[in-house]
Amino acid sequence: MNTPSSCVSNVAQTPARAWAISGVCAVALAAAAVLGSWPAGAQPAEGKKPAQAAGKAALTVQVVSPQQSSVPEVLSVSGNVAPWQEAVVGSEVSGLRLAEVLVEVGQAVQKGQLLARFSDATVRADLAQAEAGLAEAQAQLSDAQANARRARELDGTGALSAQNVQQLVTAELTARARAASLEAAVQNQRLRLSQTEVKAPDSGIISQRTATEGAVPGNGHELFRLIRGGRLEWRAEVPFADLARLRSGQKATVRLPGGGAVSGVVRKIAPTVDMATRNGLVYVDLPARQEALRAGMYLRGEFRFEAKSALTVPASAVILRDGYDVVMRVDGDNKARETKVKVSARDGDRVALEGLPPDARVVLRGGAFLSDGDTVRVVQ
Q: Which 8-state DSSP code applies to residue 44?
C-alpha cells in the first residue's frame, strides 16, 4: 500500500506518472490534505499556492460624464379629453310621437338647424279650437264695449239706472278678461306647435342621440347631446405643488396616440384639488376639428417653462428600476454602482438630472444588464 510520502514523490517525479497513481494513493493524498498532515517535503512550495480566480468583467461599457447645459424645464402630466361645453337637447312637449329624426351622431350642425320633428296634428287641432274661441270672445268684447259706452253716455240722464250702468260696464270688463285668457291659450298652442320642431341651440357636433322615430318621450326627455362649437379641451391632472407655476394663456403640448402632437392654451385652473389624488385640473383649450382627437381619450402632455442650466446626460444612460430612475456609475475600481437620480427635464435625447455629481462616470448604454457591484471594462 502506498503511503502519502510515496504518492507525493510519484506525483512530483513527472506529470505523466501522476495518471498512474493507484486509487489507494489518491485516497491517501485526499485524506492527508483534509487532515492537514502532509508528509515532510510534501507541503506546497512557497509561492506555488493556487491562485484565486480573478473577478472578470461582466460587460464592456462606455462611460460619459454629465455636461452643464441649458434645457427647458418640462412638466409631464396626463388627463382626459372632454367637450368644452356639452348642451343637452330635450323634448319640451309630452304625449306626442316622434315623427322624424334628421341627424346622426358625429354630424356637424348649425344653430337653429332642425334636428327632429314631432307629429303635430293634435297640436294644430287644439290651436284651431283656441283661435275659434278667441274670435268668439273678441266679438262678445266688441258688443260689451259698445253697450258700456252707451251706458256711460246715458249715465245721469235718468234713462238708465245706476245699477244697469254698472252691469254693462262690468260685462265689458268680463268680456275683455275672457278675450285675454283665450288669446293666451292661442299663444300657448302656437308655442306647443313650435316645440314640435326640435332645433339645435348652438352650432356644434352631435355627440349622443337617444331620439328614436315612433317613440313618445315625456316632457324633458333627453334626445341629443351637442358639443358646443365642436370645441374640446384637455383636462390635465397636475400635482398640487406644480399648480402655482401655471398661468392662463400658457401653452401646452398634447401627445396623440399615433405619435403626433397638438398645441393648446391653458384656459383656466380649477380652484380646488382632489382630496384623493392631490391633483388639480388645468383646462387646456384644444384646436377645433382635429380628426385625431376624441372626447374620452386619456392623453399625456407637457407644459414647458423657461430654460435653466442643469447637468445633463444622454437619455440612454437613464434606466427605470423598481419604479425609480437610476444610472449606473463606474467608480475607481471599475465597479458599477447603482445611483438613484431625479429627472427634472428632457430636451431631445438629453436628460437633466438631480442627485449626480459633475465628475461622475456614467454607463452610456447597457446599464439595464448590470447589477450593483458588477465589474466592468471601460473602453473609449
A: P
Contact 70, 309 (CB under 8 A): yes
What residues pair up with 252 in beta bridges, in sequence order?
Answer: 264, 303
Average pLDDT over residues 235-254: 94
Closest CA to 79 of 217, 283, 377, 225: 283
Residue given cell 503511503 in the structure block: 3
CB-CB contact of 230 with 289 (8 Å): yes
Please give the Cα distance from 127 to 366 (Å, whole number). Answer: 83
Q: φ and ψ at 319, to 5 degrees?
A: -125, 155
Confidence of residue 57 (pLDDT cuts 50, 70, 90): low
Q: Is 184 left (phi over 0), alpha (psi -120 to 50) or beta?
A: alpha
* CB-based contacts of 267, cutoff 8 Å, min separation 6: 233, 248, 283, 284, 285
**Model confidence pLDDT, tens digit, residues 109-167:** 999 999 999 999 999 999 999 999 999 999 999 999 998 988 888 877 777 788 888 88
- Please provide residue 20's backbone torsions phi and psi, each rounded to the nearest 5 degrees: -95, 0
Residue 53, number of CB atoms within 10 A of its CB: 6
- Residue 323, pLDDT > 90, answer no
Calculate mean pLDDT across residues 348-358: 85
CA distance 78 to 82: 13
Listing DSSP states for 232-286 in one string gives EEEEEEEEHHHHTT--TT-EEEEE-TTS-EEEEEEEEEEEEE-TTT-EEEEEEE-
- Integer angstrom CA distances of residue 151 from 39, 137, 143, 178, 346: 158, 21, 12, 21, 96
pLDDT digits (tens, 9 = 90+) for 133-148: 999 999 999 999 998 9
Q: Which alpha helices (H) appear in the chain, and where do they start and end?
A: 4-13, 23-35, 121-154, 162-195, 240-243
Which residue, among 180, 69, 203, has the nearest Cα to 133 in the 3D structure? 180
The answer to whether residues 311 and 355 touch, using CB atoms and an 8 Å cutoff, is: no
Q: Check: CB of residue 326 under 8 Å from CB of residue 368.
A: no
Query: In terms of residues, how long is the chain?
Result: 380
CA distance 20 to 214: 106
